[in-house]
Specification:
about 270 residues, alpha/beta, seven-stranded mixed sheet, three-stranded antiparallel sheet
Length: about 270
């Protein structure tokens, strides 16, 4: 595995993470479609999927843009780009892929009708610089649809499970210690307006889930994937990670239990 692959994503790029991202996409796909419809993404458009990962959104966007348009998917993970290339080939989709760091991406001026990204800006050290590149590549009237965290600290459970709470706090601390800004969603309106973008919509996206709902599988797939990484990084001991997973199991079996997912926002902005 290359160094770029190892460093491509804070949550990893292995088979378990590929599956988790599939679950995550199913949980949030209706919100993505709502945003694309609100932005007016349509047949013939050229759309950028920033931080496309394995391409769950790229594939759906490519059906929208059709054979007269195309989707450009960019991601640092060689494995995910290879996966998306195979999906594109199998389904006969017009998807162009770029394996690169966002800071190194080269986009033609005024070549895009729109951009979508979900949890891409939270992990980069210069979200504003990346958005300026996209802004330059947008045609006048081109639109961005961005889904990012607003307040990750809202992630909590009822009833409160002490060991799980500790592990969730450790996860948040690891994000805060990374190069990016986990709650970048709260700063995006100011960044975008500073680039002469008009904010068309700024809406909260929140999920409160119970163990009987499919959405429960989003955190339930995140914890067993990320808690061991927290052990490797020194934020938790192996025992603490195991106790947190035992808490999650008990929570899943507790009548009336609920889980508040981290608060997110959707920003739709248009280039003047």
């Amino acid at each position: 595995m290359s160094l770029s692959e190892k460093n491509s994503y804070i949550l990893g790029t292995d088979q378990d993470e590929l599956h988790r991202l599939g679950v995550q996409h199913q949980v949030w796909s209706s919100e993505a479609l709502r945003g694309w419809n609100a932005a007016g993404f349509k047949h013939g458009d050229v759309l950028l999927d920033l931080g496309c990962g394995p391409g769950y959104c790229s594939q759906e966007l490519a059906y929208i843009t059709g054979r007269e348009g195309k989707v450009i998917g960019i991601d640092l993970s060689e494995g995910y780009i290879a996966h998306l290339n195979e999906v594109s080939r199998l389904h006969g989709l017009r998807i162009e892929t770029i394996c690169a760091d966002f800071a190194d991406m080269q986009l033609e001026t005024e070549s895009l009708d729109g951009m979508y990204c979900r949890w891409a800006l939270a992990w980069v050290p210069d979200a504003e610089g990346i958005l300026k590149k996209v802004h330059q590549a947008l045609r006048p009237g081109g639109r961005m649809v961005i889904h990012e965290y607003y307040d990750w600290s809202t992630h909590q459970t009822t009833p409160e499970m002490p060991d799980l709470k500790k592990a969730i706090a450790a996860a948040l601390q690891s994000f805060q210690d990374s190069e990016g800004e986990i709650d970048v969603g709260r700063y995006l309106p100011g960044i975008l307006e500073g680039m002469d973008m008009d904010i068309l919509s700024y809406r909260p996206m929140q999920k409160v889930v119970t163990p009987h709902e499919f959405e429960w599988q989003w955190p339930n797939s995140f914890y067993p994937n990320y808690f061991p990484r927290l052990v490797d990084m020194g934020y938790l001991t192996s025992e603490e990670a195991e106790q947190a997973m035992e808490d999650m199991k008990r929570l899943s079996e507790t009548p009336g239990a609920s889980l508040f997912c981290p608060a997110m926002v959707e920003i739709i902005a248009e280039k003047r």
